[in-house]
Predict the structure.
Amino acid sequence: MESTAIPSGTKWWSGGKSPFNVSYGKVMMWYFLMSDAFTFGAFLISYGTIRFSVNHWADPNHVFNSFPFAGHANLPLAFVSLMTFILIFSSVTMVLAVHEGHHMNKKGVEKYMILTIIGGLAFLGCQAWEWTHLLTGEHVAMLGDGTLSVLPTTVKMNPWGEALSNTELMGALQKTSHQQLVAIASTLHHGGAEAATHHAASSLTNQELINQIASSGLHATHTGPIAFGGYFFGITGFHGFHVFSGVIINIVMYIKTKLGHFDQRGHYEMIEKAGLYWHFVDLVWVFVFLCFYLV
Amino acid sequence: MSAHSKISSPEITFQPDHSGGTKKIWKIFWVLSILTIIELGLGYFLYDQHGKISEALVLSTKCAIAILTLAKAYYIVSVFMHLGDEIRNLIMTIVVPLVLFVWFIIAFLSDGNSWKNLRNTSAGSRPNQIEQTEKSAHEAK
């Protein structure tokens, strides 16, 4: 598509010219992105090391199986594919904005920057939903003291350990307090009025609650390594922060385009630099998608 | 006004030619989409066949997904970030340092694996710790 006609035998290192043939700002953007790649790489490799060091790790198909407005339908991979396609598409609109910039087409740059900003905001919205869903989730797991509890996924709690056997579940139910049994029984009837089911459950005896829970085919687990939440929220949060700052940068670039700053300057190189950052955010997501959701 | 931008920067000796169209951009969009769909298909295969297929097949499927991810990364950097259109010197100054990742990944993941092996044997425990564990287990009885 774009090639630079370079005379053969050009001596790049003989002095008097840059050996990289791009502006200073662009070289520095590349070096910044390289250092950022090492930061993300170090985070992901640290995550991999801890994951390799334990016998059981949370199965992403169980953790990330929900979709907005789909209730409790089991839809592994669905929501994260939507997020991936949103980011790929916003990358395409970004590269189209850069392309329009090369052709000094102000209206085209404006149009594609708006689309890129919308894509970024859509991605952030998806991530906000996903985090909320995990942080307010209700999963029954057996704590270290052998009792059952209803847990969300946070940086301190990971209810995604190995599944409890039936014997383990029955033993744990006997040890669990009335209050926790009521809480567990309330999670069994999703969709109904939460307060009403909670009230109905609290009037039952422990044995009635245990019978009800045992016959419901409850999927209870051990707790898993707490590192899961820390790595998940830490790395996707750091990536989300990059998306957020990318959206801010893109909004600034849109305003500067609108004000005609780049037309006055005679080139749209700032759009190219913002584009490099935006594509890097997409690049990191490709690896986050691999490490947290696919394998 | 000229239809193409000319960046007047003292670092640019030879101006890049931007006369191409958007055909390649859309082509790469489809390539990335298809690679993602294949990845999702393999991910769904792992979910669907969970517990029914051998460890070796699970591991090789995961490796295949990782290779497809690297292919996506190549297309994003080379085409969307236009690194493929830059001169060799710039490509090398960015790509060569990233080769460090090859060793990082091998070293750290094998360290994690060795940690797991120690966890599953008594090899990683210090003798007095074992004594203490035995003592407390005895007391519990």
About this structure: Chain A touches chain B through 73 residues (CB under 8 Å). The longest helix of chain A spans residues 227-258. The two ends of chain A are 35 Å apart (CA to CA).
